[in-house]
Amino acid sequence: MHIVHVGMEYDVLRENNRIANSNYRLLKEKGVRAIEFMGSIGSGKTSLIIKLAERARGKGLRAFAIAGDVTGDDDQRRMRESGLEAVNCNTGRECHLDASLVRKSLEAVDLDGYDLVFIENVGNLVCPADFPLGAEYRVVVISTTEGDDMVRKHHDIFLHSDIAILNKMDVAGAVGVDPGVIADDYGRLTGGLKAMYMCSTRTEEGIDEILSALEL
Ligand code: MG
Ligand code: ZN
Fold first, then answer.
1. Tens digits of per-residue pLDDT, 177-207?
2. Nearest-angstrom CA–CA distance, 170 and 63
3. For residue 39, how far is its CA from the centre of ligand 1 (angstroms)?
4. pLDDT at res. 10
5. How many angstroms is it from 38 CA to the middle of ligand 2?
6. pLDDT in tens, 162-176
7. CB atoms < 10 A from the CB of 70, how many?
């Protein structure tokens, strides 16, 4: 029975990859850049997206977001209140977005009217790694409040992402976390090839560097 299970899983992942490639081509055709954000519940994905979208708007980019969550529309409402148009994408029982859900969300808007889409994945550091959505950049967001062992515990998500961000730097001291430990773990995992970006969405420390890294 174990072999059957593995086979099914392989088909699911292969089908997801096929749709993700199709999403990537659609977005390229329409001239819309897509950036995906993964991370735990409470890492600050929504706040970071809102901050980056404000800056992008300031540069004349027309942006919208896809707010992925199991249930509810809290993130979509927060985004809209900030002036960022957003499509709500509930997964129901799934703990990750997949490429076909993202496709439906992309089809819900007129892509000709946009230059950029921020895709917020469900709060989860495990399975989103296996489900690419078709974005140009996959970003993983962790925060100092999650402790200093996040990189050591979640290799896959860091290896499957292009950019890693350590958020909530403003409270690192208060929660007794040394950001250097996290950055060192990340450096070891990635062979020193990639830097971890450190920021605080509250103080805006580090936001400019992230905008540059994302070519915004
Ligand atoms: Mg959120
Ligand atoms: Zn999942």
1. 999 999 999 999 999 988 899 999 999 999 9
2. 27
3. 9
4. 81
5. 12
6. 999 999 999 999 999
7. 15
- Distance from residue 139's CA to the centre of ligand 1 (Å): 14
Ligand 2 centroid to residue 104 C-alpha, Å: 18
What global pTM score does this model have?
0.95
Residue 2 CA to ligand 1 center (angstroms) comes to 35
pLDDT at res. 8: 60
Q: Compute, in angstroms, the gap from residue 113 CA to the centroid of ligand 1.
A: 24
Ligand 1 mean position to 10 CA, how many Å? 29
Kindly list the protein residues that place their beta carbon closer than 5 angstroms to ligand 1, a single-atom ion. 45-46, 75
> Is the pLDDT reported for residue 161 higher than 90?
yes
Q: Which residues of 167-184 are buried (b: 16+ CB within 10 A; e: fewer)?
A: bbbeebeeeebebeebbe
Cβ–Cβ < 8 Å for 171, 203: no
User: How confident is the model over 50-64, as pLDDT tens digits?
Assistant: 999 999 999 999 999
Q: Give the environment of ion ligand 2: residues with CB less than 5 A.
A: 95-96, 127
